[in-house]
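# nightly structure sweep
# worker-07 picked up a monomer target from the shared queue
# config: single-sequence mode, recycle default, output format = structure tokens
# input follows
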Amino acid sequence: MSSFFSRLSPKANFLLGIGSALAIFFIAGFFVLLFMVLKPNEKQVATQQPTAAGAQDVGQQGTVPIEPVTANDWSRGPEDARITLVEFSDTECPYCKQFHPELKKLLAAYPNDVRWVYRHYPLASLHSKAPKEAEAAECAGELGGNDAFWNFIDKVYEVTPANNGLDPAQLPQIAETVGLDPEAFSSCLSSGKYASKVQSNVSQAIAAGGQGTPFSVILVDDQTIPVSGYVSFEQLQPFVDSVLAQ
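# output follows
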């Protein structure tokens, strides 16, 4: 082969080198293009697993499959409220931590017109401590009723740094802070008796289309309106006013 190249003129050698380089370039480009075509769409992959959602606006009206609100739900506000907001939440989600006081503002502004229902949606792949914290809230509700559940949830959101930062040893302390027997609370929590309920809530959230937290569904008459992510009181207020004006 070397004798063949030695017989070529310098110009021919130059042209042959350019041709070889171009061939290598096009072959490499072909495989890069092939990889890009065959590579799964990153956005599609991302939606297959729940993630923490950012700020979004109130969604469009439609039909969202959601379990009916019953007396077994943890709720704030009157049962006959014109508007019911069902929140699926993760106690270690930073956006949920921000969303929580916004919904408290909403109830304070519309005490007779808005009902807030809380359901669990711990994203275990991101926040491994969140499922047990959800069970802890259920134990608080068992021991102290609806008010104890909400007081416990309020306190968790108040003290957790979010992003899986709450020390599990604080859970009995929080229970005691809201007036519960810490030993009875710890016994309930260690039993795991509410793990299936928490998982049922997660399944409901996924069935309703929730792909991140917080995820909410607003119920108005026969309409179900999805709300993805953190929404401020100021964003919710015009929507509530428009419903109440009808």
